[in-house]
């Protein structure tokens, strides 16, 4: 299957979110506490597949897809998986060692490894992605996700108010069985609203630590140096070609400039 690693990694991130978000834009805090990096040795692996909010997830998913697709044009799918996991686990471990007691959640280190590896192997294409992807995230993806979150919250409030009104009517009519069913639905909606409010506050209060990106990027390039040196040399040759082209352009620009 072509682009197997990209498909597997994307589905893994999405599957975890869909399975445990309880139909809301946020994972429960209990899950993040149990499987984030900081509480359990298992967290060294599981933290990669968790995100503090849907904006965090979307902001990681787009670069994952973009740079994983680029890498799969050069490397086999198992290499891409290995870079992702090694960068996430080892980058996260280095972060944890230097920042004891600080909880880490997200695939940032793993994706930084993919980005650095792609930049090392295919600098021309990677440069385009390094410019385009952040712009798409900032000016298209984040506003779209934010709009969806607001629409979801508004829908929950309307549904909650409707159920409360329905329960009052049913109780006034002495239809206790139906009122109990409506109350169960109300409790489920209230739980979703509580999880959403908690997650929204958590996402707003959770900072981004850019050092973990650097750790992940280092591991991604180190993987290439250890296991894919031929491909890495080809990437370095492309850098040399880019340098020659740049110096050539600068030479033309200087040669074409005249003093008055």
Structure description:
It is a single chain. It contains ten helices and no strands. The chain is mainly α and 260 residues long. It has a domain at 4-138 and 209-252: Rhomboid-like (Rhomboid-like fold).
Key structural traits:
260 residues, mainly alpha, Rhomboid-like fold, 10 helices, elongated
Helix-strand layout with pairing:
Layout: H1 4-20, H2 29-35, H3 43-46, H4 54-71, H5 77-98, H6 108-121, H7 123-172, H8 176-205, H9 210-227, H10 229-255
Task: Give me the secondary-structure category.
Answer: mainly alpha
Report on the biggest sheet: none
For the record, the CATH architecture of the domain at 4-138 and 209-252 stands as: Up-down Bundle
Report the end-to-end length measured between terminal Cα atoms: 63 Å
Low-confidence stretches: none
Based on DSSP secondary structure assignment, what is the total number of beta strands? 0
The CATH homology group name of the domain at 4-138 and 209-252: Rhomboid-like
Let me know the average pLDDT.
Answer: 93
Strand content: under 5%
């Amino acid at each position: 299957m072509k682009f197997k690693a990209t498909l597997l990694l994307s589905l893994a991130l999405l599957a975890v979110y869909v399975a445990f978000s309880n139909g809301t834009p946020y994972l429960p805090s209990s899950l993040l506490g149990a499987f984030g990096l900081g509480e359990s040795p298992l967290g060294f692996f599981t933290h990669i597949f968790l995100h503090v909010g849907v904006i965090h997830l979307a902001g990681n998913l787009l670069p994952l897809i973009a740079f994983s697709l680029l890498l799969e044009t050069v490397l086999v799918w198992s290499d891409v998986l290995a870079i992702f996991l090694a960068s996430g686990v080892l980058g996260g471990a280095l972060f944890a060692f230097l920042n004891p007691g600080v909880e880490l959640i997200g695939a940032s280190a793993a994706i930084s490894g993919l980005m650095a590896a792609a930049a090392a192997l295919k600098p021309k294409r990677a440069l385009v992605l390094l410019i385009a992807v952040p712009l798409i995230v900032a000016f298209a993806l984040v506003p779209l996700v934010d709009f969806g979150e607001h629409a979801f919250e508004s829908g929950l409030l309307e549904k909650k108010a409707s159920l409360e009104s329905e329960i009052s009517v049913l109780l006034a009519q002495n239809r206790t069985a139906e009122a109990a069913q409506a109350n169960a639905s109300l409790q489920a909606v209230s739980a979703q609203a509580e999880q959403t409010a908690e997650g929204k506050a958590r996402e707003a209060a959770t900072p981004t630590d850019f050092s973990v990106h650097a750790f992940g990027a280092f591991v991604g390039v180190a993987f290439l140096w250890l296991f894919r040196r031929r491909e890495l040399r080809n990437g370095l040759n492309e850098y040399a070609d880019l340098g020659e082209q740049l110096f050539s352009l600068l030479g033309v620009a200087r040669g074409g400039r005249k003093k008055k």
